[in-house]
């Protein structure tokens, strides 16, 4: 039996503690999805054969545009939706046919879904009450979670007296207090304004690291996904496009969809390949060190350096500054090269920032170039 | 200037409407306290008609019939209507709109048609099986039938007003189907249920036509008794009964409003 992660005892994991401790205990919360298919009606394919393994104790994010299937996948994990085929295991146990109220899984809903007929305290205790815990233990655990999420002063309020951020934290606490094997979060921060949102991102991350609980997080915001996640799965039209840590997904996207979704615009079709890693695109010839065999060349804006004037050479392109957006810490450029253009981001180190219309030279290191499939 | 004239005109109409609505009631209430025997003149305040009322076996039995009928039929309609309202909510996405129309049809039918059909139906059943002898039993069945749609509608609209995610949250928080009913749904729609009960109650107390056709010899309700008594002329006693009924229905209607308007969570 897992020691209660909310107890102040040994189970408490400090923020910096190695994440692979008490592996055996946390084994219970790994997730395996195998061949999940789900259709709505005749024509809408929500999931088109999803295979995925989520490790115990991981902060795992399902990322994609609306309609990509990420929410359906989360709802299948919660048991609120049944897959047409495929199987679902948590901790090695097949729970494909287990109804939601018998799964050790709790959800933080996008609308928070706090019960309006109950006080905050009774909302927090709802799950424990349904599980049949004695009143004394319910109260102790509610008090402990209220302390942990720092909402002691809210417990006696009514739900309609809470702000958005407070509701969000109550919804999180109501799910956590049940100490599930897996916590599911369905765009829990999307209704909040930017400031509160980043504050709660940090808080959520702190909670997850402290508890070492498996979190499955759904979002359409790639920035949020990168900040929060141990690993990200990018979904599109019911298929998983790529799974990996944030840096890998951002820096080495496997296809054009992932690259564009992660915010990359500098994608150029490769028209010819030559010995020594030479690639021809409409920008000109560039040498690429990666072994990738894809059809597209990705140039990340922040890997580019701008040199004043025309200084031709290997992996150097001559360009005219078409547009400059000055952002204080950095500047964003549109550089015109022949018929096409290239986005570049340059850190502001107090040196010369080329002006619009200026002729310049762009340089990029061969090992910063990535090729990927369509 | 024009604006003020218009406003005064509208205010006058408003008072006129109130007078037409409430003056007749006021007259009935006033004359129920009349010490004289005639409805022609008011001679002084007295409770003699109320005392007479309390001594009249027939009236007391009508009163108790009315109350039994209203309470029992409202309670039964509450249970059935609540289930139907929930069913309508649960399956609102399927093409079941015609079912809802079907349940409302009896309301829009003229009471007299509904009453006669019920009577004919009960008589047939009674002839064939010996069951459903006209009396309080048949009246309860008839009343439940016209109360159900109102209850179902109130319950349905309460459910529709809820965030559908709440149902999922209850499942997600380990509530079994029975626990969801008793710990989430019933507490959430409680104000709607109370409101529906009082509405059913007033509908039942109000009803004359359907009661008249489905009543048996010993099951006269207050409206039926009044109808019978009035053939001999309006006695001040009738005024007293009417006053009592006005009081009861007003209280029930206010309670119904209170619960439906209580800030619904």
Features of this protein?
A: 374 residues; alpha+beta; Rossmann fold; OB fold (Dihydrolipoamide Acetyltransferase, E2P); five-stranded antiparallel β-sheet; 9 helices; B: 265 residues; mainly alpha; MetI-like fold; globular
What's this model, at a glance?
The complex is a heterodimer of chains A (374) and B (265). By secondary structure, chain A is an alpha+beta fold.
Description:
The complex is a heterodimer of chains A (374) and B (265). Helix content of chain A is 24%, strand content 31%. Chain A is α+β, with helices and mostly antiparallel strands and 374 residues long. Chain A is elongated. Chain B is mainly alpha-helical and 265 residues long. Chain B has a single domain, classed as MetI-like (MetI-like fold, Orthogonal Bundle), CATH 1.10.3720.10. Chain B has helices spanning 2-32, 48-55, 57-90, 97-108, 111-129, 136-160, 165-172, 177-206, 209-214, 222-230, 236-261. The mean pLDDT of chain B is 87. The interface between A and B is medium-sized, with 29 and 19 residues.
Helices, strands, pairings?
The complex is a heterodimer of chains A (374) and B (265).
Chain A: H1 23-26, E1 31-40, E2 44-54, E3 59-63, H2 70-78, E4 85-90, E5 93-94, E6 105-108, H3 120-130, H4 135-148, H5 164-176, E7 182-186, H6 194-211, E8 214-219, H7 222-228, E9 231-236, E10 239-244, H8 246-251, H9 256-261, E11 267-269, E12 272-274, E13 278-281, E14 284-287, E15 296-298, E16 305-308, E17 316-326, E18 330-337, E19 340-347, E20 359-363, E21 370-372
Parallel strand pairs in A: 3-8, 3-9, 6-7, 7-8
Antiparallel strand pairs in A: 1-2, 1-4, 4-5, 9-10, 11-15, 12-13, 13-14, 15-21, 16-20, 17-18, 17-20, 18-19
Helix pairs in contact in A: 3-4, 3-5
Chain B: H1 2-32, H2 48-55, H3 57-90, H4 97-108, H5 111-129, H6 136-160, H7 165-172, H8 177-206, H9 209-214, H10 222-230, H11 236-261
Helix pairs in contact in B: 1-11, 2-11, 3-6, 3-8, 3-10, 4-6, 6-8, 8-11
């Amino acid at each position: 039996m897992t020691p209660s992660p909310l107890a102040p005892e040994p189970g408490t994991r400090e923020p910096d503690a190695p994440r692979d401790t008490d592996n055996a205990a946390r084994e219970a919360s790994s997730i395996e999805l195998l061949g999940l298919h789900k259709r709505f009606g005749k024509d809408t394919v929500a999931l088109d054969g999803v295979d995925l393994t989520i490790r115990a104790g991981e902060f795992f994010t399902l990322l994609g545009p609306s309609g990509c299937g990420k929410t359906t996948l989360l709802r299948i994990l919660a048991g609120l939706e049944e897959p047409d085929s495929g199987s679902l295991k948590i901790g090695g146990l097949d729970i494909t046919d287990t109804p939601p109220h018998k799964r050790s899984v709790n959800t933080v809903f996008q609308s928070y879904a706090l019960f309006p007929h109950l006080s905050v305290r009774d909302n927090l205790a709802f799950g424990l009450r349904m599980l049949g815990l004695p009143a004394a233990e319910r109260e102790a655990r509610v008090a402990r979670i209220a302390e942990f999420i720092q909402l002691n002063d809210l417990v006696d309020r009514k739900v309609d007296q809470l702000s958005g951020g407070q509701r969000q934290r109550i919804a999180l606490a109501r799910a956590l207090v049940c100490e599930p094997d897996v916590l599911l979060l369905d765009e829990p921060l999307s209704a909040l304004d930017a400031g509160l949102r980043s504050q709660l991102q940090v808080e959520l991350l702190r909670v997850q690291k402290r508890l070492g609980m498996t979190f499955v997080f759904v979002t359409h915001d790639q920035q949020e996904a990168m900040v929060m996640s141990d690993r990200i799965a990018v979904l599109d039209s019911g298929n998983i496009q790529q799974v990996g840590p944030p840096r890998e997904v951002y820096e080495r996207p496997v296809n054009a969809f992932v690259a564009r979704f992660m915010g990359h615009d500098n994608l150029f079709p490769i028209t010819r390949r030559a010995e020594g890693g030479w690639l021809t695109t409409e920008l000109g010839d560039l040498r690429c060190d990666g072994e990738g065999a894809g059809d597209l060349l990705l140039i990340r804006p922040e890997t580019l350096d701008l040199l004043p004037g025309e200084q031709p050479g290997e992996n150097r392109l001559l360009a005219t500054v078409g547009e400059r957006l000055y952002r204080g810490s950095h500047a964003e450029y549109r550089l015109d090269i022949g018929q096409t253009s290239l986005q570049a981001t340059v850190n502001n180190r107090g040196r010369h920032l080329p002006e619009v219309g200026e002729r310049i030279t762009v340089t990029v290191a061969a090992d910063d170039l990535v090729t990927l499939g369509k | 200037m024009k604006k003020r004239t218009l406003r005064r005109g509208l205010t006058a109409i408003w008072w006129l409407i109130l007078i037409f609505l409430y003056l007749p009631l006021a007259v009935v209430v006033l004359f129920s306290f009349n010490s004289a025997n005639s409805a022609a003149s008011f001679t002084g305040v007295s409770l003699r008609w109320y005392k007479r009322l309390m001594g009249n076996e027939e009236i007391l039995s009508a009163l108790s019939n009315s109350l039994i009928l209203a309470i029992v039929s409202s309670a039964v309609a509450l249970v059935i209507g609540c289930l139907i309202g929930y069913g309508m909510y649960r399956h609102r996405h399927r093409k079941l709109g015609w079912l809802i129309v079907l349940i409302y049809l009896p309301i829009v039918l003229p009471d007299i048609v509904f009453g006669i059909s019920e009577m004919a139906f009960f008589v047939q059943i009674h002839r064939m099986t010996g069951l459903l002898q006209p009396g309080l039993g048949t009246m309860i069945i008839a009343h439940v039938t016209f109360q159900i749609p109102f209850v179902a509608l109130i319950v349905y609209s309460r459910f529709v007003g809820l965030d559908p995610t709440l149902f999922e949250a209850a499942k997600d928080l380990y509530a079994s189907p029975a626990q969801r009913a008793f710990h989430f749904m019933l507490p959430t729609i409680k104000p709607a249920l109370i409101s529906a009960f009082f509405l059913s109650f007033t509908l039942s107390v109000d009803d004359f036509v359907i009661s008249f056709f489905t009543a048996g010899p010993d099951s006269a309700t207050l409206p039926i008794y009044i109808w019978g008594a009035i053939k001999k002329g309006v006695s001040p006693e009738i005024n007293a009964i009417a006053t009592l009924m006005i009081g009861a229905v007003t209280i029930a209607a206010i309670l119904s409003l209170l619960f439906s308007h209580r800030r619904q969570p």
